[in-house]
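Possible regression after last week's pipeline update?

I re-ran a chain I had predicted before the update to compare outputs. Posting the input and the new output here so someone can diff against the archived version. Not blocking, just want to make sure nothing changed silently.
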Amino acid sequence: MPDVKEPKSRLTPRQELFVQEYVANPNASAAYAKVYDVAPDTAKANASRLLANANMAASLATAQQKVAERAQMTVDSHMATLAELRDLAIKAKQYTAAITAETNRGKVCGLYVERTQDVTPELTGDQRAARALELFAAARARVTSGGVS
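New output (post-update):
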């Protein structure tokens, strides 16, 4: 089977560097400023123009897709890894670790729901200001009475 080559990039070397920077940190102005060594205002305007370029958009999409594929973890692979860890823990008679792995498998499948409840009362702006003054007065009292060094 003959080697299939990717089409030659229509980007300049600096534009290729911009793609790499932008994929690593998706802030177009920062990526542009780093690659082209320009002032922030210039970077913002030129980065915006560069992102509108069709060749740039295609190169960015390809680079981002490659990053996503490398980082992808499927539920099936995650479940298989947890099952393997569970089985290894059972063989080593590490039952707590086995139970944890199995519980995590259940969490991945959505069998467990972790719930939190915020019991902090909501305060109005005036109530927050009054509470801050109370805390400040209490702290000042501790300092002046010698309670805090």
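Follow-up from reviewer: compared with the archived run. The chain is about 70% helix and 0% strand. Marking as no regression found.
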